[in-house]
Fold this sequence. Notes:
Two copies of one chain form a homodimer.
Chain A: H1 9-16, H2 34-46, H3 54-69, E1 73-86, E2 90-96, E3 100-102, E4 104-106, E5 118-125, H4 128-132, E6 143-146, H5 159-167, H6 169-175, E7 180-184, E8 210-213, H7 215-226, E9 231-237, E10 240-254, E11 263-269, H8 279-296, E12 306-311, H9 323-331, E13 336-341, E14 349-354, H10 361-371, E15 377-378, H11 390-396, E16 399-405, H12 410-413, H13 426-443
Parallel strand pairs in A: 5-6, 6-7, 7-8, 11-12, 11-13, 13-16, 14-15
Antiparallel strand pairs in A: 1-10, 2-3, 2-9, 4-8, 5-9, 10-12, 14-16
Helix pairs in contact in A: 2-8, 8-13, 9-11, 10-13
Bound molecules: zinc ion (4 copies).
Amino acid sequence: MVRKLPRAALLAAIAALPFTSITAAATPQQGSGVAWDIVEGLTTEIGPRIAGSEAEARARAWADAKLKVLGFSNVKIEPFKANVWQRGPEHAKLTAPYQQPLAITALGFSVPTPADGLKADMVYFPTLAALEAAPQGSLKGKVAFVDHAMRRAQDGSGYGPYGNVRRKGPSIAAQKGAAGIVIRSAGTDSHRNPHTGATAWAEGVTPIPAGAVSNPDADLIARIAERGKPMQIDMTLMGKPNPGAPSGNVVAELPGRDPSLPIVLVACHLDSWDLGTGAIDDASGCAIVTAAALAAQKDGKTLRTIRVLWSGNEEMGMNGQGGGTHYAEMHGDEPHAVAMESDFGADNVWQVKNNFAPTNKALADKINAALWPMGIVPHPGETEGGADVGAIIAKQKLAVVDLGQDGMHYFDLHHTPDDTLDKVDPATLQQNVDAWTAVLKVIANEPGEIAEGVGG
Amino acid sequence: MVRKLPRAALLAAIAALPFTSITAAATPQQGSGVAWDIVEGLTTEIGPRIAGSEAEARARAWADAKLKVLGFSNVKIEPFKANVWQRGPEHAKLTAPYQQPLAITALGFSVPTPADGLKADMVYFPTLAALEAAPQGSLKGKVAFVDHAMRRAQDGSGYGPYGNVRRKGPSIAAQKGAAGIVIRSAGTDSHRNPHTGATAWAEGVTPIPAGAVSNPDADLIARIAERGKPMQIDMTLMGKPNPGAPSGNVVAELPGRDPSLPIVLVACHLDSWDLGTGAIDDASGCAIVTAAALAAQKDGKTLRTIRVLWSGNEEMGMNGQGGGTHYAEMHGDEPHAVAMESDFGADNVWQVKNNFAPTNKALADKINAALWPMGIVPHPGETEGGADVGAIIAKQKLAVVDLGQDGMHYFDLHHTPDDTLDKVDPATLQQNVDAWTAVLKVIANEPGEIAEGVGG
Ligand SMILES: [Zn+2]
Ligand SMILES: [Zn+2]
Ligand SMILES: [Zn+2]
Ligand SMILES: [Zn+2]
């Protein structure tokens, strides 16, 4: 029996319409302004946009249109080809000593298992070092499982070492003769959402199927390993390389008053992993740099031109196949003054670093002073730049300013299905825009020479 | 190139062993004691155990062995058959106005879509009432999407009304001629993990495919609906009824000093949904009632026998097909004094209710006094008992004590893949055991008559 629910005349009227502007979201999250508009639009109207896909092409068209509407000049799509990777069906289960389905996802550049699954003994390694120490040939025909213990860090510093389990673990396992590898996700959450990301095959290694399980699944495997009973896995990961696929950068400018001065480049990446909608990685970055560029010119042109780069194929762009490299090839002869990138989500900026030459101390002081009222701390460490600006920085030995964002929660979401709009806080997104605007107002109005960066 | 990582002799020694007792979990969660041991064991050694499955049968054997090891008497598996449901492959995507994959799961008792997907226009309804108000026939060939706005509540009171979207929404949509229905999950989290759960087909309704999307996906659909563009979905939900499947209860006793006195029944359910490992729903309940029964007799037998019921097929046991009904059929002629159930996770007990007759006021006072030092508040509302004890309560008009648990986070996890061991806090699990033990010590040692319960 279905009990009749009370109904209001209003609701009857609403229901008669096929669509309505009244929604009832359980997790409302609202924002406004240019930055929110970009993140909301990209995640809603495009969604997942893995490099080389038709979705990434739609994202480029979306970006091109959006940047024009926002008033940018010289908006251009700059296509290139790249050897990327595409996901296939994927699932896995433990078959011994207990039957347990596993929440698994393939790593980028994994090769396919047999279509009916790779069935093998699975060997537990508590760390990447333990895997490396395994005797040659000891993994023949087996699947290696590599555990680890990534923790939260405000500066995101756990991702280097623990991300190496993903970047290097598969090559090491393959070198030992393994038939496949499964790793604990490089992530800090406890949800059944595994973290994908590209692995990098070492030279001469024959690739093997490689996947990551969610943290709760890795916990389960660790508990079973502690019981000392042999483990077997049956895993199907059909993802495979996608060579020579179309990608591209989108470049746009806000011209400055003096076009002869070296430009300021601000970058992000447009592609995303396919599991989520790329809200924090990296629609937020594109939103931040774009909104800040506009805000920096709100009261009139800056002295220098600000160029925005929404890069293609960042996620699988190592080894010279990414948008950052293509940008440097296309624009390496144009004079740049400074490069900056935003690719760490939408949480607050809390720290600033630069690599300015001693001759630009006054400029550095001005930037730090502009950020001081926002509670942003100068940090003496080396700048990182980022994948989208790395090639042009290297080519021109560019000065860099890094605005460091709070990374305590970034690796809860990074490269998972959970990278969705509801995770973006409009207030911290805007704090990023404000911090970037403050920096751009100083740099893009700097009349003096901005010298090559030092260190790094 | 793969950089050689430093390696220690110790690690080399470890790696030479196929398995090791050293694990490196990123999300360590440890516990001890009987209750933890049960939750850890069931989730690790059995995992998902949907009613009617071979996994549920393994869980019964596990429970039988465990209860014997723990020292229970008269441990019995009491098999029965039930019309249940089994999951099949499932996936869905929006195909218009934007292409977006959706994190979807079928509701229990959904019928299958065509194997190559149900492709249809999708109509947005902000509430269940709006769906109900839709004109008859207006949904012909379409998929209804029903949104809502479930919020957290300490007493879990949102689940009744918002759970109705799942329980009743599919029947209402089918009555309007819909080809299928998708609902916002009845859950309070923001992860890409949809919440499953059974729907109840109203009499005379021809079942349709019915699924739930995660909250972030429902947010996306709501944003798209607000744009006013027609939506289309392509969904494949292959789950189907599984009639006459084997299930069963596991019953065990700790005999009291006076076997002639009516017994105290404490219950939980052994089956779980298949998406997670049933840690909070309801391995924790079985752990709590079982550990508390043992603790109540730690210093010697209680006056009355305490019987433990680990029920089968709670999740799909409405309409008289569940373990609670079977228990009442098997044991309805044996005198019971009080029935209690634990099926709301492992968060703290904060509230206590009873339905004692006025003649048992002294008993009620004693229970409230025993819980008082733990900060547990007496509440005058009606008792609920629960699905596993409902039939025996109805049959014998039993007295009931409800220990109300904090439900602020329960519906983040309920019926999702995220219902895993790491979500159980050993400290609050033990607080439950302590509260239950305090109550059982009073009730199972009550020498006077415990009268029929009142109200409800
Ligand atoms: Zn990124
Ligand atoms: Zn990334
Ligand atoms: Zn339950
Ligand atoms: Zn349940």
